[in-house]
């Protein structure tokens, strides 16, 4: 038997834990933030089934290559949830995605996001989207769509996770990468703002579980509370890297994320060459030293888990190294000469990177 009306006491979506009205309110709250993260090529607004981007601009390219990247934030979201601070985690999401695109020289064009939560709290969802939108503005790309999914029973009411994907474009003959790197090239480090979005399982294990510290604990070495340090947003390098490549010759970039400095740089070093990196050229920030000391974590383990204060690396011809540093400093980006590209053990040996010496004190 069928009926057009629910029976009294019958099951409803809301009773099952999904609040459609809360989702609608979340959309209303986030609209003003999304409106800021736009570009002239974006068509339409929120509410459609797909985001639209006018690709006519690509006709100006001789041979446009589309680049795409997707990522999440990882367990850093647990810090945001415990602190009940949600408007910065979007910078971590956008940074992880768009700065993978810019490594090949691609300009980020647009991004979409996905938020899964145990219970839609409109103000919380809007705060998350606010951060994503503000970070997209900082990266020069548009936020053209997204999805918020309520998963009662799978996630606790205060739990959520975020993910995103972005698309960019680069002229084929401007593509950056291993093919451009040459022996003698200079390796330039661009400083990170902290842990960024990697190694949080280790950081949480050491500082919160082993040491038993609270997030509101003031840590003199950090000059602020532990929670404030752990929630420091990821630095977004996209516009800086694009501008640098317009002003000087850049052969490659490496985004320093999970796996650490040497492993990520090795991904763009071609066979027959290796990057020799000098630890004495910088001192990792206090948070890295703190995790190592409190957890008695071996230096090698720290270096393959955390960025150690380097969020992006540029490989440039040696003759433009000074100009590169001056250009970055003019853009208020801390940077230094980290090392150089040298021959490896043989022409067929895989490309690699290794750290040498001791850190500066």
TrEMBL record:
Indicate where this protein resides in the cell.
Cytoplasm
GO CC aspect terms? cytosol
> Which top-level group of life is the source organism from?
Bacteria
UniProt key word rRNA-binding = no
Presence of the UniProt keyword tRNA-binding in the record: no
Record-linked Pfam families = AIRS, AIRS_C
According to the entry, every stretch annotated as the PurM-like C-terminal domain falls at 182-346
Q: Could you tell me what reaction this enzyme catalyses?
A: 2-formamido-N(1)-(5-O-phospho-beta-D-ribosyl)acetamidine + ATP = 5-amino-1-(5-phospho-beta-D-ribosyl)imidazole + ADP + phosphate + H(+)
Q: What is its main location?
A: cytoplasm
Under what name is this protein listed? Phosphoribosylformylglycinamidine cyclo-ligase
């Amino acid at each position: 038997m069928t009926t057009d009306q629910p029976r009294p006491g019958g099951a409803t979506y809301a009773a099952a834990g999904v609040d459609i009205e809360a989702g609608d309110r979340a959309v209303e709250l986030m609209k003003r933030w999304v409106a800021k993260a736009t570009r002239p090529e974006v068509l339409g607004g929120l509410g459609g089934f797909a985001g639209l981007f006018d690709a006519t601009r690509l006709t100006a390219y001789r041979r446009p290559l589309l680049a795409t990247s997707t990522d999440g934030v990882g367990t850093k979201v647990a810090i945001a949830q415990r602190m009940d601070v949600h408007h910065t985690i979007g910078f971590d999401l956008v940074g992880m995605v768009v700065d993978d695109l810019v490594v090949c020289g691609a300009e980020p064009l647009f991004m979409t996001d996905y938020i899964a939560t145990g219970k839609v709290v409109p103000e919380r969802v809007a705060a998350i989207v606010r951060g994503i939108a503000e970070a997209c503005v900082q990266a020069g790309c548009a936020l053209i769509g997204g999805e918020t999914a309520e998963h009662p029973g799978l996630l606790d009411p205060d739990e959520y996770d975020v993910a995103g994907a972005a698309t960019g474009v680069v002229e084929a003959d401007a593509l950056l990468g291993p093919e451009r790197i040459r022996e003698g090239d200079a390796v330039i480090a661009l400083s990170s703002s902290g842990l960024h979005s990697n190694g949080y399982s280790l950081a949480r294990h050491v500082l919160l579980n082993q040491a038993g510290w609270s997030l509101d604990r003031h840590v003199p070495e950090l000059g602020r509370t532990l929670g404030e340090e752990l929630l420091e947003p990821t630095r977004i390098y996209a516009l800086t890297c694009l501008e640098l490549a317009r002003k000087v010759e850049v052969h490659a970039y490496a985004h320093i994320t999970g796996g650490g400095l040497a492993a990520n740089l090795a991904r763009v070093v071609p066979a027959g060459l290796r990057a020799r990196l000098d630890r004495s050229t910088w001192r990792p920030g206090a948070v890295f030293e703190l995790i190592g000391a409190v957890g008695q974590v071996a230096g090698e383990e720290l270096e393959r888990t955390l960025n150690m204060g380097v969020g992006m690396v540029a490989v440039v011809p040696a003759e433009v190294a000074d100009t590169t540093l001056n250009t970055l400093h003019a853009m208020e980006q801390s940077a230094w000469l980290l090392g150089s590209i040298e021959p490896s053990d043989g022409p067929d040996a895989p490309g690699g990177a290794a750290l040498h010496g001791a850190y500066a004190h």
